[in-house]
Amino acid sequence: MSAATEAGPQPVPIRTSFLGKVFTGFAVLAALSVALSLAGRWFGAEIALGGHTDSQALREIVIGNNVLVVPENMIRLEKARRDGVAARLDLYVRWPEMDGYSAEAKDVFNNVGGPPRVLFLGFEEPMMSRDMSGRLEPIYEALIEKPGTPGPGGTIIYDFSPKSGYLNEQLVVARQPGRVPFVARCLTGPGAEQTLAPCERDVRVGDDLSLTYRFPQHLLADWHALDASVRALARKLIRPAL
User: Fold this and answer.
1) pTM (2 decimals)?
2) Which of 27, 50, 173, 184 shows a CA-CA span of 20 to 30 A to 146?
């Protein structure tokens, strides 16, 4: 998908350097949008193939200035279940227990019976200067169509403008007085139906570490507890680097 080339009326002159940064941000975000759609389909296929482990042996993975101490049954890819330095670490946990794979939880991780409730977490060094909440005002506000429509859990759901580059996606926002807003993007249409986790949000955790988590859309109704639980898990897993 191509990035947006228009961001609506701009009555106040803006420095060229700032515009360049904003348009670069649009391009990166649009590329991530494509990646979300493709990754969502891949996640569903990967779970069906298996590859789980119930081992709770701890692994120490270093990303940037952060050390993550993670049980193997939370690490999604077999090749990543090792100690050492990594550019990225992908985990999966069940909601609301926030634990990894086990014999007791096998039906949840294999998506057998009931609504999906597996969360996918990805840790890596940030590619952008702001997380998703921080991008609402300078970037997303120029790309969405208003007014939005009421969504679950007190959220407001906005369609992206046709020129935004975000095809088949919506922006979900929950404003919190005195706090940064909850902001997520969700796939729509066939893309949403083909993945177990069509919604995505990224936050900053640890020592300048980006955590992207993907989740089933029905969990938007409980977004506050969801976001708090993900952040709490991150705090539990991340150790200060020596």
Assistant:
1) 0.80
2) 27
